[in-house]
Write a structure and sequence with these properties.
The structure is a single chain. This protein has about 400 residues and is an alpha/beta fold. The chain folds into 2 domains: about 140 residues, Aspartate Aminotransferase, domain 1 (Alpha-Beta Complex); about 240 residues, 3-Layer(aba) Sandwich (Aspartate Aminotransferase, domain 2), CATH 3.40.640. About 45% of the residues lie in helices and about 15% in strands. The chain has 15 helices and 14 strands. An 8-stranded mixed sheet has the order 2-9-8-7-6-3-4-5, with helices on both faces. It has a 4-stranded antiparallel sheet with strand order 10-11-14-13. It is globular and about 60 Å long. It starts with 8 loop residues before the first helix and ends with a helix.
Length: about 400
């Protein structure tokens, strides 16, 4: 059977994840990988989770093992209302929350919800490649906005919005990862956020705010989220996930937004997977009700700060002249920029020969037209691996230079 003539246009627009494909290649022993966005498994609260499962299976075994509501388990949604109020000063009702299977499902649903083939959206340039995948599959025309060390440039964002207006087009939404952005690690200052939000209102669009690990801050003061700045007026939809701040294996996240939009999301999710796992939702609710998350994140911050500092120190000591990098105030990543004549994708095969891996930056650009950047993850590797891996990477780069 030849299926090539039977596949939908969605399949033809789909591309494999560069990171997921790379992880297959670098799984063999001896390779030090800075490629994935993996949390440190040594920090997983294994004993607490084991106790939580014992509790929920004892307290409500039928509800734990049965199908659940598409909107999410009531116990978890109550905890999420409390969590966003205490941590972000965001006031929402349970009806403004949808529990999803982590932020990648939220991105896929957002693309299905708002994008018809040919519709225009705006993202930072570079931006999270998982989001680009979801938007490209939906057939979006993606405009990238230039960025600096503080995120997207307001002037270029306005120019892109004005260009679309002059072309008789509208911008469906502006997608941003404002805090410790994946891939660059940069954070948008509050004053710039306020200007970006005003532009969104002026051009009758909204901000799709992706906040996967905002709480993992090592230094400085956190700006307000776009959602808080908007005051719940409906100009922002925010995506949260527990994958980076709790455990990725639970595959849980949530969307907050206007109630009428959440109702549409619910209908869409019904056709996708009926509901996210009630078992894992109730376990997470129990974990949150015991106020265990804040201490878990504090421990994570201490460990990740030390790893980031070690990576920055080692980069300073061993990288050849002409290589620069960002200084993230939190999160899991930093961004390395090579001299312009070096193609990070072509360099990757040599790096893997030298038993070190990273993600080439080209896949984070909507147009795929910048080749001398790469992303490094500092959360997963041990301190010893960080030092040795960066030495190998520096040697690889030095040979290319």
């Amino acid at each position: 059977m030849n299926y090539n003539n039977l596949f939908s246009s969605v399949v033809s627009r789909s591309k494999a994840s560069a990171i997921r494909e790379l992880l297959k290649v670098i799984s063999r022993p001896g390779i030090i990988s800075f490629a994935g966005g993996l949390p440190d498994p040594e920090l997983f609260p294994t004993k607490e989770i084991q106790n939580v499962f014992d509790t929920i299976l004892t307290k409500y075994p039928k509800e734990t093992l049965q199908y659940g509501a598409t909107e999410g388990q009531d116990a978890l949604k109550r905890e999420l209302v409390r969590l966003v109020k205490e941590t972000e000063n965001i006031t929402v009702t349970p009806e403004q929350i949808l529990v999803v299977s982590a932020s990648q499902q939220a991105l896929d649903m957002s693309a299905r919800m708002f994008i018809n083939p040919g519709d225009s959206i705006i993202t930072a340039c570079p931006t999270y490649l998982g989001a680009l995948q979801a938007f490209q599959v939906a057939g979006a025309d993606i405009l990238g906005v230039a960025s600096d060390q503080d995120g997207v440039l307001v002037e270029d964002l306005k120019a892109k919005l004005e260009l679309l207006k002059q072309q008789g087009k509208s911008c469906k939404f502006i997608y941003l990862v404002p805090d410790f952005q994946n891939p660059t690690g940069t954070t948008i200052p509050q004053e710039r956020r306020e200007k970006i939000l005003e532009l969104a209102k002026q051009y009758n669009t909204f901000i799709l705010e992706d906040s996967p690990y905002r709480q993992v801050r090592f230094e400085g003061t956190a700006p307000k989220t776009f959602y808080e700045l908007d005051g719940g007026r409906g100009n922002v939809i925010t995506l949260f996930t527990f994958s980076k701040v709790f455990v990725p294996g639970f595959r849980l996240g949530f969307i907050i937004g206007p109630e009428e939009v959440i109702r549409k999301f619910v209908i869409l999710k019904q056709a996708m997977d009926l509901c996210s796992s009630p078992t894992l939702q109730l376990a997470t609710a129990e974990f949150l009700s015991r106020n265990l998350l804040s201490n878990h994140i504090k421990r994570m911050i201490d460990v990740y700060r030390a790893k980031r500092d070690l990576m920055l120190k080692t980069l300073q000591e061993c990288m050849p002249q002409g290589v620069t990098w960002t200084h993230p105030e939190g999160g899991l990543f930093l961004w390395l920029t090579l001299p312009k004549h070096i193609d990070a994708m072509q360099l990757l095969s040599k790096a893997i020969e030298n038993k070190v891996a990273y993600v080439a930056g080209v896949d984070f650009y909507p147009d795929g037209n910048v080749f001398n950047d790469l992303r490094l993850n500092f959360s997963y590797s041990t301190p010893e691996q960080i030092v040795e891996g960066l030495k190998r990477l520096a040697q690889t780069i030095q040979e290319a230079v």
